[in-house]
Amino acid sequence: MNNSANTLMPDRTMPLQLVGLTLEYPDGDGVIRALDNVNLGVEAGQILSLIGTSGSGKSSLLAAAATLVRPTRGLVVIDGTTANDLNNKQLAALRREKVGIIFQQPNLLASLTAIEQLVIGEHLRGKPVKAARVRAADLLEVVGLGDGANKRPHQLSGGQRQRVNIARALMGSPKVLLVDEPTAALDHERSESIVRLLCEVTREFSVATVMVTHDTEFVPLTDAVAVMRDGVLTAPVPATA
Ligand SMILES: Nc1ncnc2c1ncn2[C@@H]1O[C@H](COP(=O)(O)OP(=O)(O)OP(=O)(O)O)[C@@H](O)[C@H]1O
């Protein structure tokens, strides 16, 4: 694989492409290179596991792919749009329309029911609430929480809260799903069912999914795996069982 950012061209048919991505954080007089010339493409309907030791750069890759931090060098291309070219307002719109983000902790609002957690984002974006409720109810069915739509977070298990989180990330019909340690707070059985669900929704909704995980046990459920070490990403290989 050619690793030079100068010779790699973005493939705009891929929902997510990172080209020659380098991210440096200031560190005293020097810098910490969290990402070092990372190249990655994820196709629609494909879920990639991203593994690596603590501090290797996994969260930095997700943050850059989510356009939450601007890279020092290299390109982030989301559904054909080069994020580097956009101002902050345009970036926020790109994230809203194309990117779903799932963090380790669901961060649900304590006073809202499951369905309201999904609808409120659409409401704040000025979208019609009625249509949002219909989509939210459908998505809660998809994630196996059809009968939990009116429950509040304290009435749901950790796994169910993570299911709400996944459904919420799908509300805006994203092209790219970025998932950070989705099973960190869950037991073995629930962890497996959450990874299986992420694989299912990746296919059903044709999103390009990157899942950071420390649970290498569940990697074979996904399509491909890439390893991060000191900011350098290996080329993805099939995650065969
Ligand atoms: N905001 C920041 N400012 C300075 N350095 C940072 C910042 N964020 C991350 N780093 C550094 O960048 C490197 C990569 O960190 P990153 O959090 O991306 O790794 P990680 O693989 O996600 O680690 P973990 O598995 O522990 O979450 C580390 O050396 C880290 O200390």
UniProtKB/TrEMBL annotation:
Entry's Gene Ontology cellular component terms: plasma membrane
TM segment ranges: none
One MF annotation (Gene Ontology) recorded for this entry: ATP binding
Keywords in alphabetical order: ATP-binding, Nucleotide-binding, Transport
Pfam families linked: ABC_tran
UniProt entry tagged with the keyword Transmembrane: no
SUPFAM superfamilies attached to this UniProt entry: P-loop containing nucleoside triphosphate hydrolases (SSF52540)
Name this polypeptide is given: Putative ABC transport system ATP-binding protein
Organism this protein belongs to: Paeniglutamicibacter cryotolerans
